[in-house]
Amino acid sequence: MATTSEPAATTSSQPSSASLLSIRSVAKHFGKNVVLRDISLEIAEGEFLTILGESGSGKTTLLRILAGFEQSTSGEVWMSGERLDTEPPYRRRVNTVFQSYALFPHMTVEQNVGYGLSIAKRPAAEIQSRLAEALAKVKMSAYAKSKPSKISGGQQQRIALARALVNRPRLLLLDEPLSALDANLRRQMQVELKALQREVGITFIFVTHDQEEAMVMSDRIALLRSGELEQVASPREIYNRPATSYTAQFIGHTNLLDADVRQGTAICSALKWPTAMPDGAALFSLRPECIRPASTTSATVALPTKSATVRFTAKLRDQAFHGATDLLRVESDGGLILTIRTASRDLPNSEARLEFEFSAADAIPVRATSLASNSEERH
Amino acid sequence: MFSRAYRTAVTVPPLVWVAVFLLVPYLLMFCYSFWSVSDSGTIVHSWNLDNYKELLTKPVYWQTLLRSMWIAARVMFFSMLLGYPLAYFLSFHAGGRKDLYYQLVIIPLWVSYLVRAYAWKTILGTDGVLNTLLQYVHATRHPLDFLLYSPFAVVLTLTHIYTPFTFLPIYASLEHIPRNLVEASHDLGATPQQTFWRVIFPLSIPGVLAGATFAFVLSLGDFLAPLLLGGPSGIMISNIVVSLFGAAYNWPLGASISLCMLAIVIGLLFFSERLEKKWSFS
């Protein structure tokens, strides 16, 4: 165990009353391979926090450290003012819903769900009533006597959830629990899971690689990139105010504008807009839906005024129909390629010159961080 | 999919092999068991149940059979006692050395059965390694004579020889247990001991049954270990069969004992397979 004893003794940073879990400078190395570095995160009581990241970002390792299946190389984890990471998994008031559910194949649904209570030697009457309650909550009472192999994937998922929740943990960890389900069932379970979390009031830490899932369910999203926290914020904030280019690209779709700022004006190719950024190079994120066809056909030059609307002319390169919206790829004067999301409608043929506009306030300055090459075309 | 000629070419040779070298001998043995030997020492092909009557009435046969089963049961017990912890350790705690240890367990199987039996003879004999050592350190004054030519020597040798056979199926069944089940058990509050008894052991029962069956059936039919190390008190049923087919020249009686053992073994295999099915969850 590579933990330093001095800071632990003083517990200088005792978590505030609202904070349930406190992850402090946690790092994990597998040999020379650094999987997590310097992760610090406070998680509030009753919060639904999603750890979002690509495969290999370290999200599952972080979850396994919280569950106790892995030891962190350095750093500490505290829960309600008590050290958590030095306890073996079976003494933590933390339960896990595994990615592949990990139901015991030799036990019935009922025995699976009652396992934790029977290990804890609860009285038989209490086990019976809590069991019935848990099965009813996940609508699986009818399958109490079935073996896990006889029920469907979605039902196994509910049983895994009931088996964890019946123990009334302080913290529930969910390791991509929906990834094995088909798209429709998955969306349904997202809603159910979120509703269930509100109902029971237990803190959820949910791991996923699916940014849409993260947006739908979470109170806050912690975005991991190669073992480091990229940004921790509410879904709205992380989408509307991405701190880095990686966040902007990973969550949703964006145009990254490599601009040059001179005396309050950002210049990128033929586009110019007012900004509060200091002089020099700056990177801006402009969401495709923030660009719209210009309301009137007039001047083609952008007007650098406060809360300005920036206009530009561009050639239509490509139009893709996405149902309610169209995704356009246009080339502005000066050769800048932009992606634009507009309400679906018919546009003139390609090569047509069209006018577009966006508000300068929608161009969000972001810190430059590299995006893994294979995730360029994410939706 | 395949041509008729190809299928014939592939299936006929093994069928012929099994028929000529397995089914026909069994059939012959079945016939012999209902025949008898005349006083002049020729086999009389008249059908009767005398051999089976003799087996039931003469205590030496069924007593030897019972002793053989008792020896086989002890071998089964001790090889489980050695094989299970070994398999558990290798599967769950050997880490990167798993493959090395696995090979070490397997290597004895490459050594001839006879060599291993003789090795025990050298170790257990009156002038053997063990007795010499005991006398040298003055633990005993005279050589211990129960070590060799006794059921003890037979059980010891057979346990040594058949432990890898019990180890293998147990190891295979332990390796098949998804590790996240163990994690799930810990996660739900079970200590490592509770996890072993409530998750790991129940899931390894098919391997335990297969291993136990191996050890019991293989040692029940063994005749070399009792021949070399058993002495008069360590005689097993197969030794009687050997002598009936050899020196005693009573093939019909030998065949009837063989058929009884065959029936016992088939019964055991059938029973253990049903139990294994009941306990398998894949």
Count of alpha and pi helical runs of chain B: 12
Q: What is the overall silhouette of chain B?
A: globular
Number of helices of chain A: 9
Work out the radius of gyration of chain B: 23 Å
What fraction of residues of chain A sit in β-strands?
Answer: 25-35%
What would you call the structural class of chain A? alpha+beta
CATH superfamily of chain B: MetI-like
CATH top level of chain B is Mainly Alpha
Instruction: Describe the sheet with the most strands of chain B.
Output: 2 strands, antiparallel
Q: What composes the largest sheet of chain A?
A: 6 strands, mixed
Q: What would you say the CATH architecture of chain B is? A: Orthogonal Bundle
Distance, first to last CA of chain B: 31 Å
Number of domains of chain A: 2
Round the Cα radius of gyration of chain A to an integer and report it: 25 Å
**Run of helices and strands of chain A:** HEEEHEEEHHHEHEHEEHHEEEEEEEEEE
How many domains would you count in the coordinates of chain B? Answer: 1
The separation of the N and C termini of chain A measures: 42 Å
Number of strands of chain A: 20
Main β-sheet, spatial strand arrangement of chain A:
6-7-8-3-9-10
Average pLDDT taken over every residue of chain A: 86
Account of the 3D structure:
The complex is a heterodimer of chains A (379) and B (282). Chain A is α+β, with helices and mostly antiparallel strands and 379 residues long. Chain A has helices at residues 5-10, 59-67, 109-119, 124-137, 153-165, 183-200, 211-217, 235-240, 245-250, and strands spanning 19-30, 33-44, 48-52, 74-79, 82-83, 94-97, 171-175, 203-208, 220-225, 228-233, 255-262, 265-268, 271-274, 280-286, 292-293, 309-322, 325-332, 337-343, 353-359, 364-366. Chain A is elongated, with a radius of gyration of 25 Å. Helix content of chain B is 74%, strand content 1%. Chain B is built from 12 helices and 2 strands; from the N terminus they run αββααααααααααα. Chain B has helices at residues 4-32, 50-57, 59-93, 98-106, 113-124, 129-136, 151-175, 179-187, 192-220, 224-230, 237-245, 251-278; strands spanning 36-37, 43-44. In chain B, α2 crosses α12 (251-278) and α11 (237-245) packs antiparallel against α12 (251-278). The radius of gyration of chain B is 23 Å and the shape is globular. Chains A and B meet through β6 and α3 of A and α8 and α9 of B.
